[in-house]
Amino acid sequence: MNKEEELLRKKSPVNVKNKKASFEYFFVETYTAGIVLTGTEIKSIRMGKASLVDTYCYIVNGEIWVKGMNISPYFYGSYNNHESKRDRKLLLTKREIHHLQEATKQPGFTIVPTLVFIDGKGRAKMDIALCRGKKQYDKRATLKEKEDKREMDRAFKRF
Q: For position 2, what pLDDT does the model report?
């Protein structure tokens, strides 16, 4: 990821993060994918009404799908409003999908969405990561590192 893409993510009016993913998994590789959405879904995302809690990706017939992503129904939508928790197709190249499919065949690896944002052209994008699950002691070590960093920041603020 270059600096230009990083700036777009920071300047994006919408940043829906999966905070639990970094605690539960080690990120091995990350990819940016487009999302196939309907009209009312993109409007809800632009209002920030999306959630990535308990989401994961799976591959079927050479296509990658995200399951469990919640996009709240659009408030001003009519009778043809979208279903909030349907499976949504992600847009990646065949080479990337094939690479992810081979990697997830190994035990302990999965694909997890980490971030939904709006790019410079107004399209919804999703960052997904190939992840390896953490053990309990890894999670404790992560919490300890966080706590130590917080203590150091407090100590430096005193002076």
A: 67
For residue range 122-159, what is the model confidence (pLDDT) as tens digits? 889 999 999 998 888 888 888 898 889 898 888 887 76
Would you say 22 and 131 are in contact if contact means Cβ atoms under 8 Å apart? Answer: no
Question: Tokens for 21?
Answer: 């993913």
Q: Which of 130, 111, 132 is nearest to 69 (CA)?
A: 111
d(CA 55, CA 67): 6
| Residue 111 to residue 58: CA distance in whole angstroms | 7
Q: Is the pTM of this model over 0.90?
A: no
Distance CA 59, CA 96 (A): 11
The phi, psi pair for 117, rounded to 5°, reads -145, 170
